[in-house]
Design goal:
- With about 110 residues, the protein is α+β, with helices and mostly antiparallel strands.
- The chain has one domain (about 5-110): NE0471 N-terminal domain-like (2-Layer Sandwich).
- Helices cover about 20% and strands about 30% of the residues.
- It is built from 3 helices and 6 strands, in the order βββαβββαα.
- A hairpin with a 3-residue loop joins β4 (about 65-70) and β5.
- The protein is globular, with a radius of gyration of 14 Å.
- It binds zinc ion (2 copies).
- One zinc ion binds next to α3.
């Protein structure tokens, strides 16, 4: 079983959400990137996993204005387009980390870049 990894700090910076993990990893997530990956039922079809969100409806300058913990497994962002129903689990967040290392590891594993 994989050891769970927790965020030590979640910072809302100028152009990105930056998560510092308790294993020392640092993950930057551009705001719009993360908003477009909202996993809630109105953004993703629960049955098929297909996206229901039209990227054209998300403002280019969307931001997270706040975030709050959900239990000890996820975090919820309050977005500037008044959307806040998505629970981003730590596991999910870590799996879509955009840092150079993680992108390289995904490319090596043959997966698509995020
Ligand atoms: Zn959503
Ligand atoms: Zn990473």
């Amino acid at each position: 079983m994989e050891k769970p990894i927790f965020p030590k700090e979640i910072n809302l910076e100028d152009s990105a959400i930056v998560i510092l993990w308790d294993d020392g990893h640092r993950s930057p997530y551009p705001y719009r990137f993360l908003r477009l990956r909202c996993p809630c039922a109105s953004c993703v079809d629960e049955m098929t996993g297909n996206p229901r969100l039209d990227p054209d409806t998300i403002p280019e300058d969307v931001k997270a204005v706040d975030h709050m913990p959900v239990g000890n497994y996820a975090t919820q962002f309050l977005w500037s387009d008044a959307h806040y129903t998505g629970l981003y689990t730590f596991r999910y967040l870590r799996s879509i980390c955009t840092c150079i290392q993680c992108n390289a590891a995904r490319a090596e594993a043959g997966g698509p870049p995020v």
